[in-house]
Design the sequence.
């Protein structure tokens, strides 16, 4: 093999558990449901898997989480670990799977992530750790540096509100433009039969929803789901061509971690995603103009605006104007974003939410999402991941053959 795995590694299968309201299914069962469907998607058995990578909020309480999941699935992997870098986790997991396959440490790796945040595992304990109520927009308390941040009561949401406020001050971005992001993402969710929030949404609706941390209203924030899980099967492109579905190739990837604490963030409106994107584009030999869609991690409505800028789709400060009206970021537009509804409307069961962005990209590139939601002639797409206070950033470019 060459020194890079670009175009030599592929995603062969993807699968999701039941999503949204999942009474009667704990996190381990949701892992199993998603894994079973991903294996069925590409025609493999659990005995064909020799690598297992896992993530989930329950990792905080379950030591050796990936070993436990592998045991539950009847797999004895030679390459396994658990990961947790927030919403950047799942792209990092796919990158690690590719590295393991490229180096010969594994042949076929199962990437799986699931949580049951209300019905079962870890939900009450997690809430007691972060503080707040059952609304995701009120859950993120007791976040930050114990000496320099916690005494002032910041929340994770307030970090993104600060970024939105600065972007508005620096570049004239408006609340209506932030609301447009939520409206366009909801429009895409309305075309997804499995999305949790499918009812129409207007800019006025978004602006009139409960103010959480100014200028972010409730509809500009992630929803919270009872539970759900996703799984991805990664193997060599050569092997994937012999399996049940056309392979989706890994073209490029990148990652960059910045600061864990918001008080140390250098610039709230210029993210380390720029570096992750630069790495991914260089590895793929492609640029922003080659992307047919972008599955931006959309924890709050400000992030797609920042990512349109930092991943090269428009200049710094132009993101607000770029999204205005929605035509350029919706299906059929210049760069459709978050085509499944994302964290805003599809499913957000905590940490696993990022894996659904990758699954959506795979299905877009296979042409499996239905005529209304399908990006026409999709050949390559960008996924981004984001964890913490703009702390961890990942980027992945996938393409079909």
Sequence:
């Amino acid at each position: 093999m060459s020194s890079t795995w670009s175009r030599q590694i592929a995603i062969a299968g993807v699968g999701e558990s039941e999503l949204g309201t999942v009474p009667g299914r704990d996190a381990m069962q949701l892992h199993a449901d998603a894994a079973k469907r991903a294996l069925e998607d590409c025609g493999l058995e659990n005995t064909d898997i020799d690598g297992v990578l896992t993530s989930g909020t329950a990792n905080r309480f379950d030591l050796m989480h990936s070993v436990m999941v592998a045991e539950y699935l009847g797999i004895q992997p030679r390459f396994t670990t658990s990961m947790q870098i927030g919403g950047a986790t799942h792209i990092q997991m796919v990158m690690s799977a590719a590295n393991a396959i490229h180096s010969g440490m594994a042949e076929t790796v199962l990437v799986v992530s699931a949580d049951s945040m209300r019905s079962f595992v870890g939900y009450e304990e997690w809430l007691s750790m972060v503080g707040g109520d059952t609304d995701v927009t009120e859950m993120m308390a007791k976040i930050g540096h114990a000496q320099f941040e916690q005494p002032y009561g910041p929340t994770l949401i307030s970090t993104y509100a600060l970024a939105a406020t600065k972007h508005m001050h620096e570049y004239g971005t408006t609340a209506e433009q932030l609301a447009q992001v939520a409206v366009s993402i909801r429009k895409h969710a309305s075309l997804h039969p499995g999305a949790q929030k499918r009812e129409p949404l207007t800019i006025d609706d978004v602006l009139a929803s409960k103010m959480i941390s100014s200028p972010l209203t409730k509809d500009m924030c992630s929803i919270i789901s009872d539970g759900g899980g996703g799984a991805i099967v990664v193997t060599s492109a050569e092997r994937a061509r012999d399996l049940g579905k056309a392979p989706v190739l890994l073209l490029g990837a990148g990652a960059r971690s910045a600061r864990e604490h918001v008080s140390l963030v250098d610039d709230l409106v210029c993210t380390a995603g720029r570096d992750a994107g630069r790495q991914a584009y260089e590895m793929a030999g492609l640029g922003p103009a080659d992307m047919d869609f972008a599955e931006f991690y959309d924890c709050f409505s400000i992030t797609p605006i920042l990512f349109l800028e930092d991943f090269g789709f428009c200049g710094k400060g132009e993101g607000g104007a770029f999204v205005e009206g929605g035509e350029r970021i919706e299906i059929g537009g210049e760069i459709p974003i978050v085509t499944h509804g994302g964290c805003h409307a599809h499913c957000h069961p905590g940490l696993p939410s990022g894996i659904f962005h990758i699954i959506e990209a795979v299905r877009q590139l296979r042409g499996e999402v239905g005529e209304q939601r399908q990006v026409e002639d999709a050949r390559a797409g960008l996924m981004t991941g984001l964890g913490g206070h703009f702390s961890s950033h990942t980027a992945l470019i996938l393409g079909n053959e």
Remarks:
- The longest helix spans residues 27-42.
- The radius of gyration is 19 Å.
